[in-house]
């Protein structure tokens, strides 16, 4: 049963852009994702935000970006890099109001840079 589910999920990751597991807490979604990503080729970026993280800006992003090599961040334009570094609490926040939009653009850009070299799997566990 689980083998069949894993095969279907692998197809979802390769033939399509992604796969969504849903169901009640404790049904085994996180364990399944770990099994799925254990043999994934490429970079796996994962976040598992808890309820307590809901009020913390960019809490999930901190975990996702943690495994992105610094060289990818260095490839960003300075304005985007500074905004992302600020969101990750690695640098001062930009003085103007463009920061939040710049963070979004920076995340897209850095994922593009990362995905140019090898496959990237984004795991958002416990999205609700
Ligand atoms: N295939 C499985 N066989 C036995 N136990 C499992 C299996 N999948 C999950 N579990 C156990 O069930 C519990 C909940 O699994 P988890 O993946 O955290 O659920 P969810 O993410 O859906 O809330 C964990 O203690 C896990 O060890
Ligand atoms: Mg879970």
What is this structure's SSE topology?
Elements: H1 2-14, H2 29-38, E1 43-47, H3 59-65, H4 70-74, H5 78-87, H6 99-117, E2 120-124
Parallel strand pairs: 1-2
Helix pairs in contact: 5-6
The structure holds adenosine-5'-diphosphate and magnesium ion (MG).
Adenosine-5'-diphosphate is lined by residues 2, 25-31.
Describe the structure.
This protein is mainly alpha-helical. The protein has helices at residues 2-14, 29-38, 59-65, 70-74, 78-87, 99-117; strands at 43-47, 120-124. It has a two-stranded parallel sheet with strand order 1-2. The longest helix has 19 residues, at 99-117. It binds adenosine-5'-diphosphate and magnesium ion. The site of magnesium ion has 4 residues, from helix 2.
Low-pLDDT stretches: none
List each distinct ligand once. Answer: adenosine-5'-diphosphate, magnesium ion
What separation lies between the terminal Cα atoms? 26 Å
**What fraction of residues sit in β-strands?**
5-15%
Oligomer: single chain
SSE topology string: HHEHHHHE
Outline type: globular
Instruction: Give the count of structural domains.
Output: 2
Q: Mean of residue pLDDT? A: 91
What is the radius of gyration?
16 Å
What strand line-up does the widest sheet have?
A: 1-2
The helix-and-strand class reads mainly alpha
Report a brief summary of the structure.
The chain is mainly alpha-helical.
Question: Descriptors for this entry?
Answer:
globular; two-stranded parallel ribbon; 6 helices; single chain; 2 domains; 128 residues; binds magnesium ion; binds adenosine-5'-diphosphate; mainly alpha
């Amino acid at each position: 049963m689980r083998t069949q589910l894993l095969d279907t999920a692998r197809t979802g990751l390769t033939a399509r852009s992604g796969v969504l597991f849903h169901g009640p807490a404790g049904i085994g979604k996180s364990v399944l994702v770990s099994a799925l990503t254990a043999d994934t080729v490429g970079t796996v970026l994962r976040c598992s935000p808890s309820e307590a993280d809901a009020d913390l800006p960019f809490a999930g992003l901190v975990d996702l970006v943690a495994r992105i090599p610094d060289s990818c961040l260095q490839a960003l334009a300075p304005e985007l890099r500074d905004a992302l570094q600020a969101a990750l609490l690695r640098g001062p926040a930009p003085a103007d109001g463009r920061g939040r939009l710049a963070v979004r653009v920076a995340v897209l850009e850095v994922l593009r840079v990362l995905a140019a070299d090898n496959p990237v799997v984004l795991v958002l566990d416990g999205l609700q």
